[in-house]
What we know:
By secondary structure, the protein is α+β, with helices and mostly antiparallel strands. 18% of the residues lie in helices and 20% in strands. The protein has helices at 47-55, 98-104, 142-148, 153-156, 169-176; strands spanning 3-4, 27-30, 44-45, 59-70, 75-84, 118-122, 137-141. The strands form two sheets. The chain has a five-stranded mixed β-sheet, covered by helices on one side. Strands 6-7 form a two-stranded antiparallel sheet. The longest helix has 9 residues, at 47-55.
Amino acid sequence: xxxxxxxxxxxxxxxxxxxxxxxxxxxxxxxxxxxxxxxxxxxxxxxxxxxxxxxxxxxxxxxxxxxxxxxxxxxxxxxxxxxxxxxxxxxxxxxxxxxxxxxxxxxxxxxxxxxxxxxxxxxxxxxxxxxxxxxxxxxxxxxxxxxxxxxxxxxxxxxxxxxxxxxxxxxxxxxxxxxxxxxxxxxxxxxxxxxxxxxx
Length: 200
């Protein structure tokens, strides 16, 4: 079994949900076109998965940490960026989920613009025949949601920040770039381009 040098053996495998796990050397996973599989959450693998994928020749290692892992017969530096050898085709249709809805609306109430304490609201209330769809559901703060209730926008004097619609996959990917995680390893930066302006 591989042993990580200069660290302990208390590893976590879910780096996108456990910030403390980020210090345990996650690898940024890029598609075969050298773009992250996802930006939000950022496509990260535990170091164990990255080493295994490299051993099975499923990825190319682009960058490495200084730390190494050892087995009885092998020593390998921990990958910090890996590229899939086979291209993973992005889904054409974006799944209608709470997370994707919030991302489309940039984690902002579509009535007042506040952030935090978000839920979702039917623009045309279900009591009035409104359906649960991309075109009729928006992110809303608890206060606006409670105030609106089952009334129409006109009745409460609300206006939408932007008309709700189904986003394209690429659109959500680009929106995800606006929300980088708290931890970004320096070896990842060339592949992320967090909306940085290029020098002329």
